[in-house]
Every structure is written in structure tokens, then in C-alpha cells.
From TrEMBL:
Species this chain originates from: Fusarium oligoseptatum
Annotated TM spans: 32-56, 99-119, 125-150, 162-186
Protein's cellular compartments: Membrane
Protein name (database record): Major facilitator superfamily (MFS) profile domain-containing protein
SUPFAM superfamilies listed in its UniProt record: MFS general substrate transporter
Matches recorded under PANTHER family: MAJOR FACILITATOR SUPERFAMILY (MFS) PROFILE DOMAIN-CONTAINING PROTEIN (PTHR42718:SF11), MAJOR FACILITATOR SUPERFAMILY MULTIDRUG TRANSPORTER MFSC (PTHR42718)
Taxonomic lineage: Eukaryota, Fungi, Dikarya, Ascomycota, Pezizomycotina
């Protein structure tokens, strides 16, 4: 009978240990601030992906007027970003498997930053479409890279569930923030400000992750 109780208590203890580990901070983070920095970096990457989809539709009318975009071509600047992102998700995910999520995530953010910055200085609609297409490669890289990092760092459990829930919650937040900022840019400033204003935030998040999570 004693043996039966031990055989029963053993799995229970193991279950408790697994649940406890699932609630603990991962060892890669030396402090809660390091984990917070990582979370802000990854969550904000999702926010930015949606930000540059929704907000662009708002600034398109004044942008099309200034750059003299033909009516038949006005869908390209807004759709080419999502087209390239969707087409390149699987190849970029494969690169993440080969070289690691950290490299792909940070490389995608840097690439995204560069071409969003160049897009803000577009002189004609051909240049804008080209920049938007290349900008779309950024989310195609850093979105699967961010998921790989979270999946690698966190054990299965409540803490991991919370991280992924927050990651998903930042998608609609970025969507509505893009509409808000795009509307303010188009109404009171210029469409170029929509591209240029976000870059000091993006650069700081990129450096924050690189410094705090050396995987």
C-alpha cells in the first residue's frame, strides 16, 4: 500500500514542479527589467506590423495627391507591403530555423527601420512602392523570429501563455493606433511624418533587445 501511495505522490510532485517552473522567470533574464525589455521589444514588433498596414490607408488620399499617383495604381502602395510579408513568411521562418530566431528578429527589425525611413523621403510613387515592398520583408522576418524567441525562452505554463496572449493583443492595438496616428498626420502634419516619427522608438527597442537578451 505504501508503494502505491508513493507511485501516486510521485507524479503529483512532478506535476507541481512543472507548474512551478512554468510560472518562474526564465533563467536567461537576470532581472524582471530584462524580461520587461524583451517583452516590450517583441510586443512592439507586432504593433508596428499592424501600424504600418492600417494607418497607410488613412494617409493614402493626401499621399496620392502629392505624389500624383494614378488612380489605377493607388492600391499598390498599400497592398504591396502585406503581399511581400505574406509571401516571405515561410522562407524567413526557414532562415530562423537555420540561423536562430535572435538573428532573424533583429535583422528584420533593422531592415524594416531602414526602408520605412527611406519611404518617408519618397519623391514619386514608384519609389514609394519599391520602399513599401522592401519594408514588407521586415515583418516577414521579425514576426516568426519573435515567436521563435518566445517559444525558446519560456517553458510551457501560465507565464508562457500570458506572454503569447499579450503578443496577440498588441496586433489590434497597433491596428487602431495606426489609424489614429495616420489620421493626425494627414490632417495636421504631413504623410511623411507617419513614416519618420516611429523610428527612434523602433531603434531603441531594437537596441534594447540586443543588449538584454543575448541568445
Amino acid at each position: 500500500m505504501a508503494l502505491d501511495e508513493e507511485s501516486i505522490n510521485g507524479p503529483r510532485d512532478s506535476t507541481v514542479d512543472v507548474e512551478k517552473l512554468g510560472r518562474q522567470r526564465p533563467e536567461v533574464f537576470k532581472s524582471i527589467w530584462a524580461e520587461l525589455g524583451f517583452g516590450i521589444s517583441v510586443f512592439s514588433s507586432m504593433l508596428l506590423a499592424e501600424f504600418f498596414v492600417s494607418g497607410f490607408h488613412v494617409i493614402l488620399p493626401p499621399l496620392a495627391k502629392e505624389l500624383d499617383i494614378p488612380q489605377a495604381s493607388q492600391t499598390w502602395p498599400s497592398s504591396v507591403f502585406s503581399l511581400v510579408t505574406g509571401a516571405m513568411l515561410l522562407p524567413m521562418g526557414r532562415l530562423g530555423d537555420m540561423y536562430g530566431g535572435y538573428l532573424v528578429f533583429n535583422g528584420g527589425l533593422l531592415w524594416f527601420f531602414i526602408w520605412a525611413l527611406v519611404a518617408g523621403f519618397s519623391k514619386n510613387y514608384i519609389m514609394l512602392i519599391f520602399c513599401r515592398a522592401l519594408q514588407g520583408l521586415g515583418p516577414a522576418a521579425y514576426l516568426p523570429g519573435g515567436v521563435m524567441l518566445m517559444g525558446k525562452i519560456y517553458r510551457p505554463g501560465p507565464r508562457k501563455n500570458l506572454i503569447f496572449a499579450l503578443y496577440g493583443a498588441f496586433a489590434p492595438l497597433g491596428f487602431f493606433l495606426g489609424i489614429l496616428i495616420g489620421g493626425l498626420s494627414a490632417e495636421f502634419l504631413t504623410w511623411r511624418w507617419y513614416f519618420l516619427d516611429r523610428h527612434h522608438h523602433l531603434c531603441s527597442r531594437h537596441c534594447n533587445l540586443a543588449a538584454r537578451c543575448a541568445l
